[in-house]
Amino acid sequence: MHKPVIRPRRNRQSAAIRDMVRETTLSPRDFIYPLFVDETITEPVPVASMPGVSRIPLAGVGQAVKEAAGLDIPGVILFGIPAHKDAVGASGWDANGIVQRAIREARDAAPELCVIADTCFCEYTDHGHCGVLHGHTVDNDATLENLQREAVSYAEAGVDMVAPSGMMDGMVAAIREGLDAAGFADVPIMSYAVKYASAYFGPFRDAADSAPSFGDRSTYQMDPANAREALREARLDVEEGADILMVKPALAYMDVIRAVRETTDLPLAVYNVSGEYAMVKAAAERGWIDERRVVLETLLGFKRAGADIILTYHALDAARWLADA
Ligand code: PBG
Ligand code: ZN
Predict the structure, then answer these.
(1) Nearest ligand, CA of residue 207?
(2) Closest by alpha carbon to 237, among 269, 264, 201?
(3) CA separation, residue 287 to residues 85, 280, 283, 290, 292 (Å)
(4) Where are the strands (E) in 121-178, listed by range?
(5) How far apart are CA 238 and CA 253, in angstroms?
(6) How far is the CA of 212 from the centre of ligand 2 (A)?
(7) Distance between CA 97 and CA 92 in Å, rounded?
(8) pLDDT digits (tens, 9 = 90+) for 122-149
């Protein structure tokens, strides 16, 4: 009988050896936790399609960021739901807007935490698109001017990092120019460089009340069929001065994460989006999967694919699980 000489099982025979040969690790320090801050509420309101996630009032921001920081999570990303929406999303650059106030609360409550602001307009416009409309499409260059105002306003409120998510051409260069001109050369830009027009954003749009009132986002977000185009988007954002790149969604785009990883030396973030979260929670609630193992395996998979940073709604749970592993 043939006896193998080379036996990969040798390196799997004990926990000690498995620990020694492990190629990828997962830590709470890899996570960014998203927070939805709603100007219109005074108590947390659960998001039906995202069990375990709630919109929180401004008064809840301090406690939420302390909880994340206490679990050794290094950053949060803020999304705002304003009391008033308009055609251009002007509350996005209001010094007393909900995100600006949430930034100040978060900075005070957890000074060591990196407070990131998602920088877009879909939560602030009455039509739900990611910028200024011209007819039935988003006017790219008019939106860039507003992105400059918004990013500077967040910086004035004390944000540690801005994260433009609207997939406007030239958004990174515009924001860099705006921040630098206003004296914020040290505020980094984490660009949603490669963002697909994805059905996986469905639950988020309930959470953030940001669904477009007509049409979809396929004239600005990418076609899920395209991988070469992802490299082009990533390269442009590098040239425009991005500090961190992001690929979004994550789970259905592991090939894109790997490909972007191999074409840039910038840090790479991935967004484990709302629909990915909702699927896991739904199956776990039915007892069909082991939530803890599935979540940790998925997050580890993003690291293995090349991610340095993971934005995830599982961050608090995963941090606790990792702490008692
Ligand atoms: C806003 C934005 C979206 C997400 C992050 N920033 C929604 C969208 O583009 O429609 C999605 C996050 C998620 O699904 O968890 N532009
Ligand atoms: Zn948007």
Answers:
(1) 1
(2) 264
(3) 40, 11, 6, 7, 12
(4) 133-134, 137-138, 161-164
(5) 20
(6) 9
(7) 7
(8) 999 999 999 999 999 999 999 999 999 9
Cα 204 to averaged position of ligand 1 atoms, centre (Å): 6
Distance of alpha carbon 319 from alpha carbon 325, whole angstroms: 10
Token pair 């320090």: residue? 29
CA–centroid distance, 230 to ligand 2, in Å, is: 18
Closest ligand 1 atom to residue 203 Cα is: 14
Structure tokens at 112: 């060591």
In angstroms, the CA 324 to CA 171 distance is 41
Instruction: Name the DSSP class of 180.
Output: H
With 0.85 as the threshold, say if the pTM is over it.
yes
What contacts 320, CB < 8 A, 6 or more positions away? 71
Ligand nearest to the CA of 250: 1
Q: What are the pLDDT digits (tens) for 167-188?
A: 999 999 999 999 999 999 999 9
Question: Which residues are registered as beta bridge partners of 133?
Answer: 138
Q: So where are the chain's domains?
A: 23-324
CA 47 – CA 52 distance, rounded (Å): 8
**The CATH number, out of the four listed (3.40.50.11210, 1.20.1740.10, 3.20.20.70, 3.30.499.10), of the domain defined by the range 23-324:** 3.20.20.70
Which sequence positions are flagged as catalytic? 195, 248
Tokens of 63: 């406690």
Angle subtended at Cα 264 by Cα 262 and Cα 265, rounded to the nearest 5 degrees: 105
Cβ of residue 204 lying under 6 Å from some atom of ligand 1: yes
CA distance 208 to 80: 7
**What 3-state class would DSSP assign to 57?**
coil
